[in-house]
Amino acid sequence: MGTVLVLFSCTALGWSRSMTLQKRLEQLREVEKMVHLILGEITYRKETLPEALLRISEKTAPPFSEFLREVSRQASLFQGDCFSKIFRETAQQCLKDSALHKKDLEAFSQLGEYLGWMDITLQKNTITLYQEQLKQEIQYLERELPGRKKMCQSLGVIAGIFLSILCL
Known about the structure:
Blueprint: H1 2-45, H2 49-57, H3 64-77, H4 83-94, H5 102-111, H6 120-167
Helix pairs in contact: 1-2, 1-6, 2-3, 3-4, 4-5
């Protein structure tokens, strides 16, 4: 009975890891959508950033919707903090449990360094550059994901078999 539990547990860990990889890809796509919406709001609607982020929060999925609402709320209060600091701290707080890697969160946080400036052209260029980087990362993951998922699942089963044999 113990052998079956070990095998099942290791297999479940492998499947869990493969699902985390899939969730990262889905969340990167959600970030891509969110950034595209931000670009549209600041270039075409000429909204203030807090208003734009609040509007976009209604069109995005959690945890990004909560992130946008909180950034909008704090930016509207304006307690002397610069927007980049609000953006970075809120990203660290709201997105810490997401499937995004540390490098994804760092690149996303750096985007906040350039949002909220008076020059819309600079904001647009920065967002466009970030969109290109994000697009490349998503394309890479789409190519690599099937193999990585299969590897995680297989390693889970193999680890379960190995540990079961080791325990006998």
